[in-house]
Structures are given as structure tokens and as C-alpha cells.
Specification:
By secondary structure, this protein is α/β, with parallel strands linked by helices. Helices cover about 40% and strands about 15% of the residues. Strands 4-3-2-5-6-9-7 form a seven-stranded mixed sheet, sandwiched between helices. It is elongated. The N and C termini lie far apart (about 50 Å). The structure holds S-adenosylmethionine. S-adenosylmethionine (SAM) binds near residues 26, 77 and 102.
Length: about 290
């Protein structure tokens, strides 16, 4: 078995296979031996657990997950990495690599087929060009997943974990809080990757909630309201919602009044409860 914690071993494998990094696929591979064990440990991988990984690269995190979980399934879009993974993960019987694009994969089906009887966690060093779509796919599809532990760019980590009602909050932070309890676990410097990206990273964990913390009549309208309010975040909620939801101004003003919110507030001042109340007041007849 290769010692993938050794950066020298990693460069040797890449050289032997003539592998060249694809910037377009977000290929910044981890070469810091302390990061993957910490991530795998934090992910909840252990006996009775199945781990779903996105983008195994040459398998540094995959191997750490395989040392802990009963089963690991990793989705890798880049076919060129398959022979490398075959070599680096030889001996880990419980690992399956699927050559597929996470955004086009039916994850409900994959989990049912691959992880029957196991608790499921997601753990990945995400390709940064698809951070938000992957996280939103994992959350919105209501997958039977306990937690999502992922490496993302530092700014994305701050945004994803920001509390509604604070300046750092955006539409994606509010969406994350609807489904999960997010937490920044630890920072990772750009020097921990090959090639080194321009920015630092952080590992975050999203503990998936069984029920959202707020009651909304329509999820669709709730997310539309959040998106519109942050779509013009410097404007007042009255102006942003009137313009981006294409609603009559009076209706938005009345909904603000009914929910005890000042029409002059900005999106970053609203809590998740405020957004829920506002969307329920704006769209009392919408259900989904
Ligand atoms: N896990 C490895 C590590 O930590 O060194 C590699 C992480 S690298 C940041 C991201 C990986 O995701 C690459 O292997 C890349 O080929 C893969 N990838 C990129 N887009 C993908 C997609 N849409 N679906 C699945 N894998 C993808």
C-alpha cells in the first residue's frame, strides 16, 4: 500500500503516470499529511458508516476514509485518475470509484444501492468551481445523509457558515441554515495543495437537521424571497423584493408591516425566522 501521507510519494505517482493538473476541474491536490486524517475523523466515518466522497483525486482522503468507514464510494469526473486510483487504493476492498460527474449523479439511487443499512456521511475536498451547486444539491435533495464535511475556499467557508442577521450572510448562508447546522472546523493554508491555489481554505461541517428550524408554507417561495432580498442587498427589502419578485409595492409594504419588519431594512439584518414570516405573509396561498 502506498504511503499517501508522504508528499514525495504523491509527486512520484503523478510523475510516473504522466499526470498533468486540470485547472478547469479544480485539481488542487492535498499534500499536507495532517489534513486528511483530521477531515476523515471529523466527518463521522467509522464502523457502521458509509462515506460518499466527491473528487478523490489520487485518493489521499479516500484512503483515510477507507481506514475508518465500512464502505467508501468516490465520484471522480476525470477518467485519467482511474488507473492512478487503482494503484493507490489497491488493498482497500471496501472502496468503489465511479467515473461520474457529481452534479449529474442520482445520489438518492447511489446511496440506496451502495450504502444499504449504513449511516451515510459526505466528505470531500471539493473542486472549488462547483462548491455552491454541490452543497445545494446535497442539501436540497433531502438525501439520507447525517453530515457533510468539506474543504472549501476560506471566503466560501465564511459565507456558507455565516449567521443570518450578520453582514457576512448571503442567500446561500440562509439556505444552508434552513437544512443544516454549519460550523468552520479548521483552516488549511494554500501551501497544503499542489498546485498551490491563490487563496487559503477551510474545512467546514454541515450537520443535517431532520426538520428545518422555521416553518414555511412554500419552500419555493421562501427561497425566492431570500434570493430576491440578497439579489439587491444594498437596497431596502421593500425595493429589492418589489423589483426582483415583481410584486406590487403595497403588497410588499403590507407584508413587512404584518411581520413587524421595517421596510427600510436590508437583507443582512433579517434572521431566518424573519425571512420565513415574510415569505409566508407575501405568499399566503402558496404551498409545496
Ligand atoms: N480529494 C483530492 C485531494 O484532496 O487531494 C482531490 C481534490 S481536488 C480539489 C477536486 C477533485 O474533484 C479532482 O480530482 C477533480 O478531478 C474532481 N472533480 C472535479 N469536478 C468534478 C465533478 N463534477 N464530479 C466529480 N469529481 C469532480
Amino acid at each position: 500500500m502506498n504511503n499517501l501521507a508522504d508528499p514525495g510519494v504523491i509527486s512520484d505517482i503523478l510523475k510516473r503516470h504522466g499526470f498533468t493538473f486540470s485547472k478547469g476541474l479544480g485539481q488542487n491536490f492535498l499534500v499536507n499529511p495532517t489534513v486528511c486524517p483530521r477531515m476523515a475523523e471529523a466527518s463521522g466515518a467509522g464502523p457502521g458508516v458509509g462515506a460518499l466522497e466527491i473528487g478523490p483525486g489520487i485518493g489521499v482522503l479516500t484512503a483515510e476514509l477507507a481506514k475508518r468507514a465500512d464502505r467508501v464510494v468516490s465520484l471522480e469526473i476525470d477518467q485519467r485518475l482511474l488507473p492512478i486510483l487503482q494503484e493507490t487504493l489497491a488493498g482497500f476492498e471496501q472502496v468503489k470509484i465511479l467515473n461520474s460527474d457529481v452534479l449529474k449523479t442520482d445520489l438518492h439511487r447511489l446511496i440506496a444501492e451502495e450504502f444499504a443499512g449504513l449511516e451515510v456521511v459526505v466528505c470531500a475536498n471539493l473542486p472549488y468551481y462547483i462548491t455552491s451547486p454541490v452543497i445545494m444539491k446535497l442539501l436540497e435533495e433531502n438525501l439520507p445523509v447525517k453530515a457533510v464535511t468539506v474543504m472549501v475556499q476560506k471566503e466560501a467557508a465564511q459565507r456558507l457558515c455565516a449567521l443570518p442577521g450578520t453582514r457576512a450572510c448571503g442567500a446561500v448562508s440562509a439556505a444552508v441554515r434552513f437544512y443544516a447546522e454549519p460550523e468552520i472546523l479548521f483552516p488549511v493554508s494554500c501551501g497544503s495543495f499542489r498546485p498551490a491555489p491563490n487563496v487559503d481554505s477551510a474545512v467546514i461541517r454541515l450537520q443535517i437537521q431532520k426538520e428545518p428550524p422555521v416553518e414555511v408554507l412554500s419552500r419555493k417561495k421562501f427561497f425566492a424571497t431570500v434570493k430576491a432580498a440578497f439579489g439587491q442587498r444594498r437596497k431596502t427589502i421593500l425595493n429589492a423584493l418589489t423589483s426582483l419578485l415583481a410584486l406590487p409595492r403595497d403588497r410588499v409594504a403590507q407584508a413587512c408591516q404584518a411581520t413587524g419588519l421595517h421596510a427600510s431594512m436590508r437583507a443582512e439584518q433579517l434572521s431566518l425566522q424573519d425571512f420565513a414570516a415574510l415569505s409566508n405573509a407575501l405568499f399566503p396561498d402558496s404551498y409545496d
